[in-house]
Specification:
The chain has helices spanning 6-18, 22-28, 34-45, 53-62, 67-92, 110-115, 135-153; strands at 96-101, 123-125, 157-165, 168-172, 178-182. The chain is an alpha+beta fold and 201 residues long. The protein is elongated, with a radius of gyration of 23 Å.
């Protein structure tokens, strides 16, 4: 059973102490549409602090808490989530490489790049049967093979990062020359699209 995050535990324990339900909680924060209020509460529990910002600003007095207590609980939740994410990343890590491009790797057309999965051309896992000594050559061969596709979707390629482990990476030029070692991996930025209901309040 998954344990509650600090912010979820704080809110749940205060609701229990005050003998109020989540519906009553959001109603007391000023949401006339309780369903929307509950959605904001779930977003808060799911670490979507941007969407739940309005609720966060109103919830402290309803629960007889100070804004500082809410803020500290959210910070502790963020800290725990970062530790859990790091642990999961380390346990699932596989050697890979990232071809970095100018303009911070931003695609020329984000929508098209997302639809056509353009990230596959600039980020790849290195197969388990490739020995470490051949990682750079493997990345270079992939770059040469997909260079036209990379140029179609992204600005000019800059260099290649070989991620050997969560704590070791190497930056090489587009010809394979060593540039520098890093003490952490370089991750590829994600491309995400979402459609929001403009009538939601």
């Amino acid at each position: 059973m998954q344990s509650l995050s600090p912010i979820q535990y704080l809110i749940q324990s205060r609701c229990t102490a005050l003998q109020i339900s989540y519906k009553q909680l959001v109603a007391r924060t000023g949401y006339s549409n309780v369903s929307v209020g509950l959605k904001r509460l779930n977003q808060l529990f799911n670490a979507d602090y941007k969407s739940s910002k309005g609720l966060i600003e109103k919830i402290a007095p309803v629960l007889n808490l100070t804004p500082v207590q809410i803020h500290e609980s959210i910070l502790e939740t963020k800290r725990q989530q970062a530790l859990e994410a790091d642990k999961a990343y380390r346990s699932s890590f596989k050697p890979n490489f990232v071809i970095r491009t100018s303009n911070r790797g931003r695609p020329k057309q984000i929508f098209i790049a997302s639809l056509l999965n353009a990230s596959q051309y600039v980020h790849k896992l290195i197969p388990a049967d490739v020995v470490v000594a051949d990682y750079i050559e493997y990345a270079l061969n992939s770059f040469r093979t997909h260079q036209n596709c990379i140029n179609n979707f992204f600005d000019a390629p800059v260099d290649i990062v070989i991620n050997y482990s969560p704590d070791r990476a190497e930056v090489v030029s587009l010809t394979g020359a060593h540039i520098e070692y890093l003490d952490k991996t370089v991750l590829l930025g994600t491309i995400s699209l979402s459609l929001r209901n403009k009538y939601e309040i």
